[in-house]
């Protein structure tokens, strides 16, 4: 992702990004339509917290560096994740030492486990290494320590139990599947918006998303204007706006009536 692409993305919200992905992503028959949204991810720590309390939109946008955890043994709970054929983390290597500067570390934990996969020590190391953020698809702990860090951290839940109880870091830079219907690949763009949520932009769709958004936002603003200023001339105004709004997926045809639409 170039600096120019990053600057353009900063103009939009997570909802705008999902609107684009809803239009652009191809979903397999019977597949879940997610539009890149990671459900129930909550900001927990870092510089984002003070700003999010002020109810302002604060964004972290950076490439994903993926980390997959697996159960230590079959008796350690949690659904076994699809995994790489072999672990690529060398024995004796701490997984947090592998996180590059300028990335968002995306850490996946098997569902159903009660331990945390991120605590104060690894979070401090990731912060020291210059990561843009951490998203834990699972549990974290040591929240008071994490509040002292600069690096923003999101997670699904919390725990008091350390990772060694049930989990082990297994692989880095592998696709993360079973994330509520979303697959996260290394290098995908993590769009983390404290006001709206976290959305994953597939890297191969980044240019398409950026090309789609200006017209989409223009159409959406036009509809808001029409709704706000609904007067005698509204029908005429909407008649001119409708083709653009339909094109960008903001108006959908109704099942009854000629040229009748509803807002989404």
Task: Please give a structural write-up.
The protein is α+β, with helices and mostly antiparallel strands. Helices cover 28% and strands 25% of the residues. The chain is built from seven helices and 13 strands. It has helices spanning 3-9, 14-24, 48-53, 120-128, 143-146, 206-228, 234-247, and strands spanning 37-38, 42-45, 59-71, 104-108, 133-140, 153-158, 167-172, 176-179, 182-184, 189-193, 197-201, 251-253, 261-263. The strands form three sheets. Strands 1, 2, 3, 4, 5, 6, 7, 10 and 11 form a nine-stranded mixed beta sheet that branches. Strands 8-9 form a two-stranded antiparallel ribbon. Helix 4 (120-128) links the parallel strand 4 and strand 5. It is globular and about 60 Å long. The mean pLDDT is 84.
Quick synopsis:
The protein is α+β, with helices and mostly antiparallel strands and 264 residues long. The chain has helices at 3-9, 14-24, 48-53, 120-128, 143-146, 206-228, 234-247, and strands at residues 37-38, 42-45, 59-71, 104-108, 133-140, 153-158, 167-172, 176-179, 182-184, 189-193, 197-201, 251-253, 261-263.
């Amino acid at each position: 992702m170039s600096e120019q692409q990053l600057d353009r993305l900063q103009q939009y919200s997570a909802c705008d990004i999902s609107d684009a992905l809803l239009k652009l992503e191809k979903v397999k028959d019977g597949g879940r339509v997610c539009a890149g949204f990671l459900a129930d991810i909550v900001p927990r720590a870092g510089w984002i917290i003070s700003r999010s309390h002020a109810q302002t939109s604060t964004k972290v946008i950076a490439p994903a560096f993926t980390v997959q955890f697996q159960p230590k043994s079959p008796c350690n709970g949690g659904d076994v994740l699809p995994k790489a054929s072999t672990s690529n983390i060398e024995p004796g290597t701490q997984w947090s030492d592998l996180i590059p500067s300028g990335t968002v570390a995306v850490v996946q934990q098997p569902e159903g486990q009660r331990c945390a996969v991120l605590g104060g020590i690894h979070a401090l190391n990731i912060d020291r290494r210059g990561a843009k953020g951490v998203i834990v698809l699972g549990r974290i702990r040591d929240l008071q320590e994490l509040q002292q860090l600069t690096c923003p951290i999101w997670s699904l839940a919390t725990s008091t139990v350390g990772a060694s109880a049930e989990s082990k870091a297994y692989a880095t830079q592998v696709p993360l599947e079973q994330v509520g219907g979303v697959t996260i690949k290394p290098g995908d763009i993590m769009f983390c918006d404290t006001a709206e949520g976290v959305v994953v932009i597939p890297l191969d769709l980044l240019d398409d998303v950026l090309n789609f958004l200006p017209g989409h936002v223009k159409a959406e603003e036009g509809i808001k204007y029409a709704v706000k200023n609904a007067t005698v001339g509204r029908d005429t105004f909407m008649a001119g706006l409708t083709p653009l709004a339909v094109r960008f997926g903001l108006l959908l045809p109704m099942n009854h009536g000629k040229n009748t639409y509803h807002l989404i």
